[in-house]
Amino acid sequence: MTKTTFCRGIQCPKMLWMDNNMPEQGVDKASEQVFRTGNLVGEVARAYFGPYDLVAYAEDKTEMIAATQALMADGADNIAEAAFADHGLYCAVDLLHRTESGWDIVEVKSSTGVKDIYLDDMAFQYYVLSRCGVNVERVCCLHINGSYVRQGGLDLHGLFTLKDCTAQIKERAKDVGNNADRFLEYANRREEPQRELGLFCEEPYPCAYRAYCGRHLPRPSVFDVAGMRTKKKYQLYEEGIVSYPELLSRAKLSDKQKRQVESSLQQAPDTYDKNEIRRFLGTLTYPVYHLDFETFQQAVPEYDLCRPYQQIPFQYSLHIEGQDGELEHREFLAEAGSDPRRALAEHLADDIPEDACVTAYNMAFEKSVIQNLAALFPDLAERLWNIHDNIHDLMTPFQKQYYYSTAMQGSSSIKAVLPALYPDDPEMDYHRLEGVHNGTEASAAFAGMAGKTPEEIGKIRQQLLRYCGLDTYAMVKVLRKLREAAK
């Protein structure tokens, strides 16, 4: 058992049984970008205390354990991936730091705080190392400092926060042995254990087997209700209030939630509040500039005046719609490997004239991107703020349910609205795109261009341009549907 499998057991021991017996039922919800970020943060953090020795990865863990013992005996001060095992329990410590009379265990995390599950992770390591005879003085979590702003060279002591968790770890470590035995017994059962769904299916990480374990649920169910807190959904499930008829008769629902449930049960037709839609359309002037940004985040900021996980815009699409329906398309996609913000801000200021009517879908995101650019580039601030102040939110008629369709399932997100408005339109089918189908994939594609061949980069750029262009063309189509409803 490793620290990873131990923590999976803490969340839900049935995960371990499924891993052993039915792994094909899992739907991996962790993106490759998440793993890359974790690996990068781990590598950068190794130098936090100064020079370090790295225990090379080996399939045969006895090799890593022997290498660790040799480094400790030779006087190494900092050992990355230090490996230990005791009675079938194995762990590799992110960073083992020598003190005057012992060692500190340092667990590196790419998050900006210490989550509860991290304490179980560190308690497992403390238990194993203590059983191996290592004098552990402290157990610390080294996590990202979200308020750090890079200026010049990377400051590791600014980028990271070292949190001493020793007291909590020692308390939790008392249960590690019994828990490990219990998890191993559970994982090795012959028959599939039966366990009801619970909040642990979502926290601290979404379970890959959630769909399998929830296969008995009616369709739709309480878990499909939009705008309801996850905790409340599981509370209702535990009370036996699961189906839409049960929700309607036994649960307290908001007006929007009640409308979703009722319209689904009745298969109600689309409804329009023509007066409100007309009032919204009356706020728009032509030409309309439909704007959409693509951004990426860096746990370890590469550029000056960047914070960890700050949204960095690298691309935008702009569909310009005339009153006669004529369209013009403009776009910008930064070159990979350099700070894209200045070039993007300049192009944006040139592409959108003063006092132009701009639309965005869920405009809070586009506005926040523009605000950050305006703060970063004072010489462009006046133009950028003018764009910011003239943005209209195309989501409003759906969010306020002026236009309502049962197919939207109570949601006003573009992912729910677009297929409801255009269920059979191949132009609006993101699945037909190659390579990039959503914002997460777009961010990963741009961030992953480094090291690619010119041919590969050219292909990725075309995929990004097609995806972002479809985002703003979708806004054109949404506005057309609103005009039809207003008639």
What's the gist of this structure?
This protein is of the alpha/beta class and 487 residues long.
Please state roughly what percent of the residues sit in beta strands, choosing from under 5%, 5-15%, 15-25%, 25-35%, 35-45% or over 45%.
15-25%
The stretches of 5 or more residues where confidence is low (pLDDT under 50) are none
Kindly report how far apart the N and C termini lie: 65 Å
The amount of helix comes to 40-55%
Rg estimate, integer Å = 27 Å
The backbone outline, from C-alpha atoms, is globular
Protein model, in words:
The chain is an alpha/beta fold. Helices cover 44% and strands 16% of the residues. Helix 5 (116-131) links the parallel strand 4 (103-109) and strand 5 (136-144). It is globular and about 80 Å long. The mean pLDDT is 96.
List strands and helices in order, with pairings.
Blueprint: H1 3-11, H2 14-21, H3 32-45, E1 53-54, H4 61-73, E2 78-86, E3 89-98, E4 103-109, H5 116-131, E5 136-144, H6 156-159, E6 160-164, H7 166-173, H8 176-187, H9 210-213, H10 230-238, H11 244-250, H12 255-266, E7 271-272, H13 274-281, E8 288-296, E9 312-321, E10 327-333, H14 341-351, E11 357-360, H15 363-376, H16 381-389, E12 391-393, H17 396-399, E13 403-404, H18 414-421, H19 439-447, H20 454-486
Parallel strand pairs: 1-2, 4-5, 8-11, 11-12
Antiparallel strand pairs: 2-3, 3-4, 5-6, 7-13, 8-9, 9-10
Helix pairs in contact: 1-5, 2-8, 5-7, 11-12, 13-20, 15-16
